[in-house]
Amino acid sequence: MMNLSRAVVRSFATTAGRRSAAVPKEQIEKGYFEIRKVQDHFQKKDGKPVFLKGSAVDQVLYRITMALALVGIGGMGKLFYDLSVPKKE
C-alpha cells in the first residue's frame, strides 16, 4: 500500500513539462521577454497604484467604482438621517 501512495503522489507532483513535447528555445525567450516587459511596466515607480497602470479602461472603471461607492455612502447617510430624525407634520 505504501508504494501505491508514493506512486500516486509522484504522478501528481511531477510537472507536465517532462511529458510534453520540447518547446523551441526561441519561443521560450520571446515569451520571457514579453513577460519581463509587462512586469517592468507594472513595477515602474511613477506614483500610480498598480491597478491604474493597465490602460485608460482601468481608470474609467476605477472612477465609476468610486462614484458608485460615494453614491452608496450618500444614500446610507440619507437613510440614517431619515430614520433618526422624525418627520414634522
UniProtKB/TrEMBL annotation:
GO biological process: mitochondrial electron transport, cytochrome c to oxygen; mitochondrial respirasome assembly; regulation of oxidative phosphorylation
TM spans (from-to): 60-81
Subcellular location, record wording: Mitochondrion inner membrane
InterPro entries assigned: Cyt_c_oxidase_su7a_sf, Cytc_oxidase_su7a_met
Domain of life: Eukaryota
The UniProt record lists the keyword Transmembrane: yes
Principal localisation: mitochondrion
Keyword terms of this UniProt record: Membrane, Mitochondrion, Mitochondrion inner membrane, Transit peptide, Transmembrane, Transmembrane helix
Family: Belongs to the cytochrome c oxidase VIIa family.
Name of the protein: Cytochrome c oxidase subunit 7A, mitochondrial
Naturally occurring in which organism (per UniProt): Drosophila gunungcola (fruit fly)
Lineage per the UniProt record: Eukaryota, Metazoa, Ecdysozoa, Arthropoda, Hexapoda
